[in-house]
Amino acid sequence: MTQPATPLLDSNGDPIPAIPGRDPRGHKGTFGTVAVFGGCAHPPMVMLGAPVLAATAALRAGCGLARLVVPAPLAHGALALAPHCTVQPIACDLDHTYAPSEAARSVDHAAAGAGVLLVGPGLGVSEGASALTLRAIQQDNHIVILDADAINALASIPEVSRDFRAAAILTPHVGEFRRLASALNLPIDCEEPAQREHAALAMAQRLGCVVVLKGSATVVADALRTFTLDDPEPALGVGGSGDVLAGIIAGLASQYVKLEESGPLAALRAQHAALAGVNKGSAAQSATLSLFHSAVLGVLAHHRAARLWREQHESAPGGMLPQELCEQIPMSVNSLRRPSPATLC
To answer: What pTM was estimated for this model as a whole?
Structure first.
């Protein structure tokens, strides 16, 4: 697979780091645990594939353990589809929607044993889903990734920015971004190419999080900078590819992001430390990523996984299944690992 000849840069002109090397003496406990909250058991829209894909992608990206937190009626199906995961059922009401109090408690239960909480794949829209999402964004000692219906739930929570305490990454597509931007009173056209970076940056600043605005040109932003991958990949135009992206980012964050380096001002602290010569080139520094960089590298690994699939299928522009995308993740992640701290070559 062809690698870029020069380092990739963010909007400030700083290079995107490579993924740190994997500790050969590590084990499942040292590579992090991701808990994926998702699935919907409420007819007529029963969904289970999305959280399974996200959890599988997290493991393919190198995390040590993955837990599926799903509606109780789907627990046995989740085990059958994903024997590589453990399953935590959430009690449901008689109509099979999440019981709000149980949904909120499930976050606390899962958070006791997981460093990264991924909320939203196939979650559906319900009062219980909103309660679950609200409890997740109030976690101040975990990394929280919000995708799909969790982002829609955010848009329905009054004055959501007041409750937002988590070190978080949001991964909206255009429709989800538009709904949340409207709720936050951010009148920005995220579909206008010239406005996409500004739109993602404005939302990241408003919520104090990282935003991955998905599309043919995907924009990653935190409060200080942006990165845009403008390299359309038609094979990714398939249901489930967004769940895989969220899982990759979760898997990388579980391994390499330290909470003290994940907030919106982490980049500024790192710049001050570099100017002062603090820990420059240290082993501890080289084994970590900021929340922003974990999102950027997740986007790159996702894109390269699709390219790897195309190389194996005579450059076919479509027809890839999301399960097949997951199979390419170990190679795409490895292609982004650090050969040296300066480039991705």
So the answer is: 0.91
